[in-house]
## 1
Amino acid sequence: YFSISLNLVQSEDVLFEMFDISGKKIFSKKETIGAGNTTKTVRLEQYDSGMYVLKITGKEINYSQKVIKK
């Protein structure tokens, strides 16, 4: 697993998506996150080893990060 820290000015709906290397969406979850600092944990045990892309989007967020599971 890994953790993501978010610091939001105001409460908003945030979409967490995970894609495999071919671009296929393998996970999607929308959550309302409150204002302030928040840490979210993403668990990867159900996925095979390889490279993935985590995408986080919301009103004030547009973030992508490569993730490698060994």
## 2
Amino acid sequence: MKDSVVAHLKKRGFIDALTSEDLLVRDSSPFKLYLGFDPTADSLHLGNLVGIIALTWFEKFGHTPYALLGGATGKIGDPSGKSQERPFLSYELLEHNIGCIEKQLIRCIGHPLIVNNDTWFKEMPFIHFLRDVGKHFRVGSMLGKESVRSRIQSDEGMSFTEFSYQILQGYDFLYLMEHHGVTIQLGGSDQWGNITSGTELIRRVLGKPAFGVTFPLLTRSDGQKFGKSEKGAIWLSPDKLSPYEFYQYLVRVEDADVIKLMRMLTFMDMEEIRRYEKQMNDPDYIPRTAQKRLAEEITRLVHGPQALETAIRVTESLAPGSQTKLDAQTLESIAHDMPSCQLLPEAVVDVKLIDLLVNIGLQSSKGDARRLIRNGGVYINNEKIEDENCSIKSNMLIENKLILIAAGKKNKMLVRIS
């Protein structure tokens, strides 16, 4: 017998909690569900991809996913998981963020049904909201929510504005059930309190069952959140993080995390995932094989096949010690997919390499730069530099205008000479 979508997601490690185990047997018939996206930035990040994948799995099993954009709730700010109140964004910036996120959702999911909660909240008078919605919420229960309790006990406290957030999100669920027939809300584990506010509101107002499903937040084996790097968030937008850098981040994930990410961020068959898990314990396993497969799947999903092809080509061209001959045309074609800077000739030619490494931000100090060179970790145009007193000569410049410098395997900089 074919698994239900919930049972399938449980096997892949998606399910953190269910409001009712009835969902395991109820989803034989098609239903509608939704997941909210907070427009606090003009791009989603790697952590948001868990929800996107979850929505797509439900669609693959014949159900109808809705993506809810928080045009109204974004004006308030979700206090869940926050130690202090978020700064308010201008309405113009929120609209811009919503437009950007909508494009990303369409690219990743295909054609989801997208709704914006500002559509119904902007027409609702405040007194009507208090009288017809607020009366169904009990302050005692609201105070008991973890997102509220932890903040009230802090020095920062919590404003009434933030306190009302769970009412707004609860009403979203009620509105979507009444107007679209949505019966399930998805969310990260930090959304449990907001989700149960919605299921309880529906029970009180409509006397109908509604369900909540949470998935675990994306964390590394050391307990830290995924989706962060030394340079910041791992954005899904190519304007904020190039497909090459996105691909590179995934290629570098730890062995302890790669199988989990295959289960949660790809549509790879579980049999294939188990084969990689087995191979990784084999003494003949080639390091990073599983990571490369993971990076290919996720980069293709987020950025498309052409961007993946470019990311792989850039990776092969920029590998330290690579036999790929570098020329200006090759470097110019991939320049927008990697970190770069522009310097005057006198800031490069006849300048000591240790000084240049610090000046372009590849090393934090001359001492660190010197030690990295001694350890064989610095490359110029893919050739290892072993002389710690090396200075940049004009013949090192590719066609007198470009030079590629690598500090270790992770950090590279294309320097343009203007």
## 3
Amino acid sequence: MPDPKMSDDELVGLTRGYLTQRRATRPAPGLEDDILAFALTRRRSKHLGTVFGVIAVVVVSALTAVGVLYLHAGSSGWHVAEDSSGADVYAVSCVNSGDCWAVGSAIEHESSASGWSVVSDRLPAGGSLNGVACASGDMCWAVGAVNDGNHSQLLIEHGVGGEWAVVRAPAMSTNPGTFPELSSVTCVSANDCWAVGSAATEGGPAVQPLIAHYAGSRWSVVDGPRIGGSGGELTAVTCVTSDDCWAVGPNSLIEHYLGGGWVVEASQGVQGTLSAVTCIAADSCWAVGSTGAGDTEQPLVERYSTAGWAVVPSPHISVPNGGELEGVACVSPNECWAVGDLPGIGALLPQTLPNTADSEPSTQPLIERYSGGEWAIVAGTSSKQGGVLTSIACDSSGACWAVGGTLRESTS
């Protein structure tokens, strides 16, 4: 644990060391636990290391992420459905409006008859699930990693009939300093699923995208394009058909699968982090994330059509430190939702949002809606506990679930 008497500059330096290493080069053993006691950095954030101006004002009492579930049901609007203190949740997948699964530090199930409940909190020690996808009500997959501080291994769990179990993941190096991880999964059918993530070696070559495929019998790693320079990773994947899939990641990385293998799509000239992707049809996809950093960080929205990928206008975030989008889902070609947070850093800050009480944390959920040909921010989604939204799932009826976490002070 860092010395509580350390100066703001010392805390900023320690936090910078953690945040800039979090993805590309894993921190030294113990550093992550130390920093988490001072500044909460949520699992899916990819670029908090650039927001240094506010790190020094993090409260010195520990902060914990508390799972929070949001519901949108047609015209009833968004509201907090349940505050689940038992687990953090990072991703959600829905078979229909009354049958959804959320994963993170546990596996939770939502039934229209009984609400949300924890189905399994017995992940392997050091295990975390980052993505979930259901091919049907009786068959789901969840992916992530098990990290012991010295190295990690892929974690894959299979849900059949509501019962979950760890299955054999593709073998990766067990050498110290190797950190493979799966971030997202999607299923075309019960026998055709893709998962993406990254593979990093401390002190070794640049981090590279990791792609795995399930073809009905087992998961296997699939060769993909090697990314030069500082490397790359994939944070989200979606498929239109078995021969048409998209994956996205930081540095505006977009990869496309057309049956013969994965290829990198040409950049559209806007550098940013793409955190989520979804497709309505082969010629209609959306990807969301953020561009810029610090006070200039803004949501990034890209759309794919027959003309290729292009950045589309999205609302400007005017609150301190801007905002970012972490999840996207569509009800129809003319109605989509994107979720994230503002001001884009997972810690309590001294400033507050306009028209909120001084006691409210300034990190707040961000929800945007695409309707009538343009994106707009949805009002009235702030939380007394603050919060971030990391994933969203919608069904054809217009019902959507978004999951994430709230920020709370802890006396421990």
